[in-house]
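Lecture 7 notes: from sequence to structure.
We start with the chain below.
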Amino acid sequence: MAKNKKEDRRSQRTRELLHQALFMLMREKRYDSITVQDIIDRANIGRSTFYAHFVDKEDLAISGLEQMLDALIQSPELDDSQRQGVISTVGLFQHVQEQYPLFQTLVRGRDMELFFEKGQVYWSKKAEAHLQAFLPKGQEPAVLLPIVANYLAGSFVNLLKWWLDNKIPYSPERMDEIFQQLVMPGARAALGLKS
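Predicted structure tokens for the same chain:
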């Protein structure tokens, strides 16, 4: 048992080193020009160790994105005013604003669409679980939850793209207000909830 815990900690540490190496490299050059060799050189680990944890660079990037989003969604920093809507996006916009130099780097690379695509799938799954918990017990939504969740996630991703393309002209709080105004009336109706 103790050996498994030690291996788990070692595995977590290795994965974290690889995530850090990739994100540090992404600040220096385009994502599509980064190689697995660059990552393992930066992390100072062997190639076989890399492949014991990840299939390829994309797998590492997606894992890092999911880890970041998991931490963000579970963040206790969101106060009740930020959780008012069925889905709150203010924390996500705040995080993107804080990491804007990294996102600028990603936008320069051709693989930014990968991050948006995987982010939309991730947010859709999280939104579906959240919406299910939000529905009153025994109430069926007017539209299937996977459809509503995909709609919410797609709308968020498109709004986020616009925000980044326009060099974040509004605050995260204002972007959340815009999301709530544009998207949530339709989502509430699809769930069969009153305004």
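Points to note: The two ends are 52 Å apart (CA to CA). The first helix runs from residue 2 to 28.
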